[in-house]
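re the bet — no i am not wrong, look at it urself. input seq straight from the record:
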Amino acid sequence: MRLTFLLGEVGNGFRRNASMIISVVLVSMVSLFFLGAGLLAQREVSVAKGFWYDKVQVSIFFCTDQSTGVQSCTDGAATQAQKDQVKSQLDGMEPLVEHVYYESSQQAYDRFKKQFRGSPYLSDVTADAMPSSYRVKLSDPNKYNEIVASFEGQQGVEAVSDQSNVLSTFFKLLHVISVGAVALAVVMVICAILLITTTIRQVAYTRRRQVSIMRLVGASSTVIYLPFVIEILLATLIGAALAVGLLWALVHYGVEGLFNDSGSTGTLVSMISTADVWDFAPWLFAGAVVIALATAWITLRRYLRV
C-alpha cells in the first residue's frame, strides 16, 4: 500500500469525523492526565517520605518551671546533671543514635518567633516557657520506641516527641489522593475505550460503501483496517501529549512555583519536579499506544468483517 494513499485516507478520516476524533482526543487527555496525576502523587509520597525520614528527629524535652501535671517534673526545671545524664545515655545508644543536637530555651524561643511571626499570641510566650531539648537523629526512624522506652518518665524529662507521628497523617492524605486519582484514571480509561469503540463503529458505518469497494478489488484486511487504526492512534497520542503538557504545567507552575521557590517553603518540604513528569511521560505514551491499538484492532475485527 502506497504511503501517500494511506496518509490521504487518514487525512480524509480526520476531516469527515472531526467531532468524534476530537472526543477521542479529549477523553484520552483526561484519562491519561488523571493516570499521570496518580503516578505523580505516588512519587510525591516516596519523595516526601525520603525527605522527612532522612531528617526526622526525636525530641527529648526537658522540664521547665512552668511544667505542671507531669510526674517527672515535680522537682521543677531540669538540672544540668539531669541533662548530662540524658546526653550520656544517648551517646551510649550508638549506632541507633547518629547525631544529638542541643537546643536551649532561648534558641527554641527564637525559632518559635520565626515560625509564628505575626501571631497575636506571640507576646504571651516568653523564653522561660520554652523547654530546652535534645534533638536526636536516628539511623532508623522506625525504632523510635526504643528512645521512648529509655527516656519517657525519666526525672527532668517532660516529654519525648517523634516528628514521624506528626507526618503520618500527611503521608496518609497523600496516599488517599494518589489512590483516588488512579481509581478515577481507571474509570476514565474505561470511558476512553468505550468511546474509541463507539467512534470506530460510527466511522466504519459511514465508510461502509468505501470498504465494500475495497473488498471487491481484493484489498487485504490490513489495507482496510490500517487507516482506521492510525486515525485512532494519532488521536490518542495527541491526547497523551496534551495530558503530559497539562501535568508539566501543573507541576511547573503549581508545585514548583508555590512550594519549591527558595523564598517560600522550599526549605521545609521536598516536592516532585518537572523531571518526574518526563520520567512518566514515556509510560503515558506507551499506555496510549496500547489502548488505541488493542481497542481499535479488536473492534474492527468484530464490527468490520473483511
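see?? The chain has nine helices and four strands. told u. also Residues 167 and 266 are 17 Å apart (CA to CA). so pay up
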